[in-house]
Amino acid sequence: YFFPLSLKSWLNQSNNINDNFINSLQDKRAVERMNIEKVYHPFITGAYSKLVGELMQETGARINVPPPSVNKTEIVITGEKEQVALAMVKIKKIYEEKKKNATTIAVEVKKSQHKYVIGPKGNTLQEILDRTGVSVEIPPLDSSSETVILRGEPDRLGQALTEVYAKANSYTVSSVSAPSWLHRFIIGKKGQNLAKITQQMPKVHIEFTEGEDKITLEGPTKDVQIVQVQIEAVVTDLVSRMDYTEISVDPKFHRHLIGKGGANINRIKEHHKVSVRIPPDNEKSNLIRIEGDPQGVQEAKKELLELASRMENERTKDMIIEQRFHRAIIGQKGEKVKEIRDKFPEVIINFPDPTQKSDIVQLRGPRTEVEKCTKFMQKVVAEMVENSFSVSVPIFKQFHKNIIGKGGANIKKVSSYFLDFYPFSTRLLTDTLFLSQIREETNTKIDLPAENSNSEMIVITGKKASCEAAKNRILAIQKELVRI
Length: 484
What we know:
Elements: H1 7-28, E1 29-35, H2 41-45, H3 50-59, E2 62-64, E3 74-80, H4 81-101, E4 103-108, H5 114-118, H6 123-132, E5 135-137, E6 147-152, H7 154-170, E7 171-177, H8 183-187, H9 192-200, E8 205-208, E9 214-220, H10 221-241, E10 243-248, H11 254-258, H12 263-272, E11 274-277, E12 287-292, H13 294-312, E13 314-320, H14 323-330, H15 335-343, E14 348-350, E15 360-366, H16 367-386, E16 389-394, H17 397-403, H18 409-421, H19 426-433, H20 435-442, E17 445-447, E18 457-462, H21 464-483
Antiparallel strand pairs: 1-3, 2-3, 4-6, 5-6, 7-9, 8-9, 10-12, 11-12, 13-15, 14-15, 16-18, 17-18
Helix pairs in contact: 3-4, 6-7, 12-13, 18-19, 20-21
């Protein structure tokens, strides 16, 4: 009979089989660690890691050599025991041979040139190791040491040293002294000047550092030397024919110097052929820098300082003038206000829009000129106020036409009538005839109501005393007419 095993018994037996299988595999595998001085690692890996690759292929073991950037001496070998053992023998042999036969030489190479010996991603070091079998040891970046050590077979060190020097000197870093304010002129508009140089020497990197009075050049030595000569010539030329200066102007006036849409500053730059840098508001700086032709720089400086001085002395004043006088001050087609502006050309006079119903007239300009203009306009307004006195004289409506008549015609009729029938009223005739003379003599304006109006009032406008005199003359005429 067949009695099946319970599930639990079956699982236990399966686990035992697996454990035994795993243990048997583990018995065959091994992990070994070899401590080998870091300086000999390149000889174990070989150039471009070709040698360590061959070792792994030959032995079947996995060999882990820490990269040059990791400061560890331990090489880890994993695989089957026989494979690991074989790999260890081969590694030990390489190490012992190199330790016995390799010698070193130390040379001084400028720190700035180390990167050219190393090459991109260490490729140059690999090239030298591949061609000569010599390992080149470069001090870490954070070290100030300039000592480069070459390690390898004695008969191969000479060749390796030649290659190290060739790589170190194949590229160079140089600098050209140039005032920082000239940098943008050297670069040119949209980089045009610099492009002419870089197109000829594309391998040379040219660096301008803001605030530093130098230009850094980096690239193949011969190319750098050619570019350096070209840039030095440009700098010499610019220094000989260009200048700069700085002026101090209160930041609150900067926007006025710039003008609406840059109108002021653009005009100055264009006229004097200079560059003007006005600092932005966030810098809170007083310094304005002017660069360009020496004469243009001085002329622009003078003009900007004069503008700034004028602004510092500038004043804005609001005059309260009744709106009813504005039109009279401005005059027909602005003739009156033009006379005032011609008299005070530095003062800007702004009248409010008539729809605003405002009495404020604004004056802006140099302090002293604004004061003079204010006094003059106050005098003009005072005269207008004085001449704006008006008085209304009630004259019987039936006498209005007798006093003036249409186009003054009735004056002649009344005078003829009175001479023919009332010779005694010579005084009345005289006053009637010379109503227009009353205006002239009293310097008043006399307005009669329209013929179709029911008003009896004749309005006299002018100085108070003159209005009273004209009033009395007209009332005298009415009195004579009533008596007649």
